[in-house]
Design brief:
With 497 residues, the chain is α/β, with parallel strands linked by helices. Helices cover 26% and strands 25% of the residues. Strand 20, helix 11 and strand 21 form a beta-alpha-beta unit. Helix 11 runs parallel beside helix 12.
Length: 497
């Protein structure tokens, strides 16, 4: 006999409460708790015909990770984001705005995989899927399409077809008759996702879940959904722009923040082999407020163009607007400029844009952001053959960054003219104290780009030794070294130790 009870569940984090509250005490989200009616029935799984005696612990030393076989999609961008291909038994959540190309991407991936696929659609008819497949010239004999939202009927067809790959489009449309709540409710999504994960792990079948996103760009449904799956891929891009970006926000089988870049055309999504060329606009145009920064996304260096516009405030309160950049970090950078550099910008409107529809969280882009803001404020264009990479601290100091080799190699490949290293001592910020040694190393991995010191703190060095080191660096770099010297400005660097 089933029992009916009322439950109050947070739509953001999925935590159940005994009564309604204005704010969830766990995730601190306001007006996210909704009342749901739960019809408790005996728990049923997708398959109960397995023996518990077969489930035994395994010693960690006996697990061989070298035998892990991945399914390669023959799509270099998608394989890179996943960490080298699809892992059998993994559950992958792909989220993005409607019409951005999620279904198109998965259809193209399926056409390249030599395995049977079951595509379950709860939103589109079979005719619509056929039209899309014709548009991208999709050809695959063992590709099955099912238009169904009932989870019990879906699992019936799964056990009948036994596909090697399962796609659910979308998870918000799947319902279970064991849950009396409405479609896309927290309980429905959690129950159906749990059954799909159980199926994937028991049968070693990869499962793709397509999910919607909310107005603020987060994945719709309970936050626990992202914790349940193995991989979360975010599909980004402006629908008015032909370029699309996929990003791994979570990956249990590879690195996070890896990105893949595609171009949408009439025949589907095409891999962009050289993304730096579209992320940077015409290099011949010199305008104020434009700066180029070098960011690291995963293991890939990307040249990002930052555009800033600083103008007089039209309304009483100055506006702060960002696209592709954290608005709170922009406010911090503006405060640093006013406090540490004396640039009065608090009464100005500031608009910041990262071109190409890409979102950047890498703090090494700070220097490019500051440069573009100052360039717009003073109306002074920045040379297009200069790129910036550096993190700004709250005291206005320039902090050290990682993967200098990769950034420098990419800058030289794209035709940038010079690279400058600073020098500080006893800073504790990870800043280089032996810039000449690093520049010698950089001279060996580059051939054209000029190398400079900005600056060499001369009181810390023996003049004769510095002259010898500079001469050696100039010879090994084939005359590419630019000497910059200064006396230093930090008192703590000259205090007796």
């Amino acid at each position: 006999m089933s029992k009916i009870k009322n439950s109050f569940v947070c739509e953001n984090c999925g935590v159940e409460h005994s009564k309604w509250k204005g704010q969830c005490p766990f995730c601190k989200e306001w007006n996210s708790i909704v009342e749901q009616i739960i019809n408790e029935q005996p728990t049923k799984r997708w398959n109960k015909n397995y023996d518990l005696k077969e489930i035994i612990p395994t010693k960690l030393d006996n697990i061989d990770i070298n035998n892990e076989k991945r399914i390669f999609t023959n799509d270099p961008e998608f394989d890179r984001v996943l960490g080298g291909g699809i892992v059998p038994g993994c559950v992958i959540l792909i989220a993005g705005e409607p019409g951005i190309g999620k279904s198109t991407l998965l259809l193209q991936i399926c056409s390249k995989i030599k395995s049977s696929v079951l595509y379950v659609s709860g939103e589109e008819s079979l005719t619509q899927i056929k039209i899309r497949s014709n548009r991208i010239n999709f050809k695959k004999s063992d590709f099955y399409v099912l238009n169904e939202t009932d989870s019990e009927k879906i699992f019936y067809n799964i056990t009948k077809i036994k596909p090697n790959l399962l796609i659910i489009d979308s998870i918000q449309t799947v319902t279970s008759s064991l849950i009396s709540n409405s479609i896309a409710s927290v309980s429905q999504i959690r129950k159906c996702t749990s059954d799909l994960i159980d199926f994937a792990k028991k049968t070693n079948t990869p499962v793709f879940l397509i999910g919607h996103i909310t107005k603020d760009g987060s994945i719709a449904g309970p936050k626990v959904l992202e914790h349940m799956v193995d991989t979360v891929i975010q599909f980004e891009g402006d629908q008015d722009n032909n370029y699309r970006i996929i990003r791994a926000n979570k990956n249990r089988y590879g690195a996070t923040n890896e990105i893949g870049i595609y171009e949408m055309n009439e025949s589907g999504l095409r891999v962009v082999k050289n993304p730096n060329r579209y992320l940077i606009s015409n290099k011949n145009i010199k305008k104020s407020g434009h700066a180029i920064g070098c960011s690291i996304q995963g293991i890939r260096p990307l040249m990002i163009e930052v555009q800033a516009l600083v103008s007089s405030a039209v309304y009483g309160t100055p506006q702060r607007s960002t696209t592709g950049f954290n608005s709170k970090r922009l406010n911090m950078i503006l405060a640093i400029l006013e406090k540490r550099a004396g640039i009065q910008i608090g009464s100005k409107d500031v608009f910041l844009n990262i071109t190409g529809g890409i979102s950047i969280d890498d703090p090494s882009i700070d220097l490019a952001v500051i440069s573009s803001i100052i360039s717009s404020h003073e109306n002074i264009p920045i040379e297009r053959n200069i790129c910036f990479a550096g993190e700004i601290g709250l005291s206005g100091e320039l902090r050290g960054i990682s993967k200098l080799k990769e950034r420098l190699s990419e800058a030289e490949k794209l035709g940038f003219s010079s690279s400058w290293l600073f020098e500080h001592h006893f800073s504790g910020f990870g800043q280089p104290s032996c810039s000449l040694n690093l520049l010698c190393y950089f001279s060996g991995i580059t051939s054209k780009i000029r190398l400079g010191s900005a600056v060499l703190v001369i009181p810390w060095h023996n003049p004769i030794l510095v002259a010898e080191q500079i001469g050696t660096l100039d010879v090994v770099s084939n005359g590419r070294y630019d000497f910059g010297v200064g006396r230093g400005y930090r008192d703590n660097e000259f205090k007796p130790r």
